Amino acid sequence: MNIPAELKYTKEHEWIRVEGEVAYVGITDYAQNELGEIVYIEIETIGETLAEGEVFGTVEAVKTVSELFMPVSGEVLELNSALENEPELVNNDPYGAGWMVKLAIADAAQLDNLLSADDYAALVG
Questions:
Q1: Which of 9, 36, 51, 98 makes a 20 to 30 Å CA pair with 22?
Q2: 100's torsion region: left (phi>0), alpha (psi -120 to 50) or beta?
Q3: Domains of the chain and any CATH numbers
């Protein structure tokens, strides 16, 4: 299982990568593996400002639908449009081409509440 050290993680299996004033969010390798083949991603929160822990979309796999939670408060700036035609990118490259949304972080201090790679690895065992 791949858990990049430079990312932060939530207990709900989202990851966040901060690049300057924006951040990229997706689901972890563990999450995509547990979900199985991902067939559809629905995110209708573009342009909305959401609080930490709020649902920003859903991911649909062959056998289940799972909600996606904001790791930190912020405005959803962009959806990864490649996922519309290729949702399997989340399975194939969850930390790269399979990112889901880009956001403007409202409160960078919230990043301190997230899990480190070591903490996340301990969580998923």
A1: 36
A2: alpha
A3: 12-111 (2.40.50.100)
